[in-house]
Amino acid sequence: MAQAAIELIGINKSFGAVRANRDINLEVARGTIHGIVGENGAGKSTLMSILYGFYQADSGEIRVGGKPVSIHTSNDAIALGIGMVHQHFMLVDNFTVLENVILGAESDALLKSSITKARSELDRLEREYGLEVDPDAVIEELPVGLQQRVEILKALYRGAEILILDEPTGVLTPAEADHLFRILKQLKDQGKTIVLITHKLREIMAITDTVSVMRQGTMVATRTTKDTTVGELAELMVGRRVLLRVEKGQSEAGAVKLSVKNLTVRDQRGVTMVDNVSFDVRGGEIVGIAGVAGNGQSELLEAISGIRHAVSGEVMLDGKPIDLTGKADPGELRDRGLAHVPEDRHHVGLVLAFEENENSILGYHDDERYLKGPFLDIDAIMADAKDKIEKYDIRPGNPRLKTANFSGGNQQKIVLAREMEQDPGVLIVGQPTRGVDVGAIEFIHKRLIAMRDQGKAVLVVSVELDEIRSLSDRILVMFAGRVVGERGPEATEGELGLLMAGVEHQEAAE
Amino acid sequence: MDMFNAIVQVLDSTIRLSVPLLLACLAGLYSERAGIFDIGLEGKMLVGAFAGASAAAVFHSALIGLGTAILISVAFALVHGFASITHRGNQIVSGVAINFIAAGSTIILGQAWFQQGGRTPALQPGERFEAINWPGAEAIRDVPIIGPIYAELISGHSILVYFAFAMVPFTWWVLFRTRFGLRMRAVGENPAAVDTAGISVAWLRYRALICTGVLTGVAGAYLSMVQNGGFVKDMTAGKGYIALAALIFAKWKPVNAMFACLLFGFLDAASIRLQGSPLPIIGKVPAQFMQALPYVLTVVLLAGFIGKAIPPRAGGVPYVKER
Q1: A92/B186 touch (CB, cutoff 8 Å), yes or no
Q2: Distance of alpha carbon A398 from alpha carbon A391, whole angstroms
Q3: Among A171, A170, A152, A172, residue whose Cα is nearest residue A162
Q4: CA B263: distance to chain centroid?
Q5: Separation in Å, CA A202 to CA A169, A408, A438
Q6: Over the range A452-477, which residues count as b (16 or more CB within 10 Å of their CB) and which as e?
Q7: Which residues of B touch A47 (CB under 8 A)?
Q8: How far apart are the first and last CA of chain B?
């Protein structure tokens, strides 16, 4: 057994009455990639924040390289060679890469020598690890994948030997994620130790050496990755057997509910994002749109739901056209039975500063049910919110809690509950399970299939290929704004992957 | 030649009038770049003016006056910091409170100490900062063009005027060439990035506010000890707010700030100059209209002529470590 880079012994941490970590023991061997998985709120991030000096443990011991240490601030952690890449990047958006890298690690009171030193150091890191990025580029002009690279460079510049990454692929496209994994492997080969926090089990299987599972603040198991399976990990995370593929019967497609014809959408720069797309969604079926993020799916969804201007084409809802000037009244579309769960729930789907009960009627607040004369009927709204909380297992079950205080999965459930409980004829869902943990994914998938079985038309857009394959009755693949293929649910991952990559059908067949 | 002399005179008073604006504007720049909105520039200038004139009159020393002005102004800045950094209070409320306290306390203390209706005693020579005449200024005064420019515009100001203009390149240098400046700009944009880099957000912001206090103190001292020979109630007359407007106009950049303040100073100087004298075409204009002109232009400029001014992103938001 290689020497341990980090040992955590009997770590406890409570926030008020909530025990975020209890009696955690963890050992990470030097020069390995160690995964930590668990549902949202299982205590992964708290544990890593303790290691990085953001929080103090109530009790327990931390050893780095075999020696007991006390970590009170991030500075202590940095001095011990621990670096962290946060889920939400800790970068100053209007600074250059160079300025971000030296921030907090300047060599003296003037910047000149720091900048010279950082420039040559970045050059070296670029050569050693293939971490290419223009040192003079401004952060906000870089794609997220490169921004993340800057975070990694920041840690390495400070001499990090142990690198903690918190949900690093949440914001990345699959290609960017692959590139990140290559970098991580290279870092490992150079003797760095990497701790990867995620709830995506595929990533764990793909790159980790060992994996620890957390559940409700405790460490339930540690496994060698090659001796475990996705099924076992999922079961350990949730504490019960999880259906990774929901069971569903044959679809009974009915009449066309939503019809898209020759739809073309351009973005603000005038680039064609959706190019002459046509398809139908019938009642009683789920149509999935697969594709690498940024191939026009977002724009397609926005155009169909009436919030983005389409250059040409038409969209019919129950045989009547939808206003495609981008100025459609969302209230009117709701009345016509179109419900939309937006991709970006933080900005479009929810008002995070509102209480849960307010978000659970948002957009439907003019509905008779929630009104008493000109005033809101608070009792009715509360009863309605409680009803949804129970039905969708939203936790914590407190309708007065600020929405920002719910985990990502539960926020998504709040939006889904709101839209689905209106009993719409057509449901459009963007990224139904982005940022959602395994247990909740299963639940959301079951609800979507229940909608289908009630004869509703469901359109799902997701970058998770597994999700598309498990939910859809028909799969459309988008590439560069066009629908490049239609497949049944039995299509293999490889076949869809080639379509998503834009490889022509003929080549795919060979 | 009369025309030329008139222009030189307007420019000369432009410089004098823009100095308090410039000092206050740079003061606001330190605070806002660090993410703390400071609507209390006005109040800090006022207490600085009062403390400066009082101390100078009592101790018969301009330097002691200046030191006291800075000290009191910094103390008020620290109160703002205590409310808005340590206790994460609302920065606008704290700033407004400081303005009220300043307006009230200067009059009450002035009356209690000097019994001159809220004024401080008129400052004698030696208690004020005198104009510094540069070598040769008198000798070349009569040389056409160059003479008046050198003698009026460049020479013949008090030390505080030169200090104010020297602060422009100095502030630029601090902001973009020093560690403190880098961190200060970072903390105004994304304090979490600073915190995770192992730097104290609170201490950094306090230091920025101390810089603000020093500069508003000097601005106040200029008003009561250079421009005027003593403190008069409410003598800041909204300059703190105009400085904030100039700061936005300057997009939080020091060199821009200087030009913005010179512009506002020029409007002020021109309005004084043109008072009572008939304008071509329009004819005689009421004095009130000329006095209102700088403020009208402030509104117009801020409303539409500056393009997109992006304030420091974390401005006005108290920093709370996320859970």
Answers
A1: yes
A2: 13
A3: A152
A4: 14
A5: 11, 19, 12
A6: beebbbbbbbbbbbebbbbbbbbbbb
A7: none
A8: 70
pLDDT at B295: 77
Task: Give me the amino acid identity at B281.
Answer: I
CA distance B170 to chain A (A): 13
Mean pLDDT value across residues A250-257:
87
Domain A256-352+408-500 indexed as CATH 3.40.50.1000: no
The model carries a pTM of 0.79
Work out whether the CA dihedral A457, A301, A417, A464 comes out positive or negative. Answer: positive
Domain regions of chain A by residue span: 4-238, 256-352+408-500
Alpha-carbon distance of B187 to B284, in angstroms, equals: 52
Q: Which CATH superfamily is domain A4-238 in?
A: P-loop containing nucleotide triphosphate hydrolases (3.40.50.300)
Across A178-185, average pLDDT: 91
Domain limits, chain B: 2-241
Q: Report which DSSP code applies to A402.
A: B
Do A256-352+408-500 and A4-238 fall under one CATH topology? yes
> Is residue A243 scored above 80 in pLDDT?
no
pLDDT computed for residue B304 by the predictor: 67
B293 vs B275: CA distance, rounded Å: 11
Q: Per the CB < 8 Å rule, is B198 touching A102? A: no
- Contact of B179 with A111, CB cutoff 8 Å: yes
Q: Where are the alpha helices (DSSP H) in A239-328?
A: 297-304
Task: Please give the pLDDT value at position A510.
Answer: 41
Contacts of A74 in chain B (CB under 8 A): 195-198
Looking at every residue in chain A, the average pLDDT score rounds to 88
Q: Using 50, 70 and 90 to split pLDDT, how confident is the model at A247? A: confident
Q: Do B198 and A110 touch (CB under 8 A)?
A: no
Interface probe with A: pick from B178, B182, B204, B322, most Cβ of A within 10 Å: B182
CA distance A191 to A194: 10
Instruction: Tell which residue, B272, B241, B302, has the closest CA to residue B96.
Output: B241
Instruction: Give me the residues of chain B with pLDDT under 70, please.
Output: 1, 276, 304-307, 322-323
Q: What is the pLDDT of residues A146-166, one digit of tens each?
A: 899 999 999 999 999 999 999
The CA distances from residue B216 to A446, B45, B67, B212, B245, in Å, are 64, 5, 12, 6, 16
CB of A104 within 8 Å of a chain B CB? The answer is yes
ipTM, two decimals, is 0.88
Share of chain B above pLDDT 70, in %: 97
Rounded to 5 degrees, φ, ψ at A343 are -65, -45
Cα-Cα end-to-end distance for chain A: 46
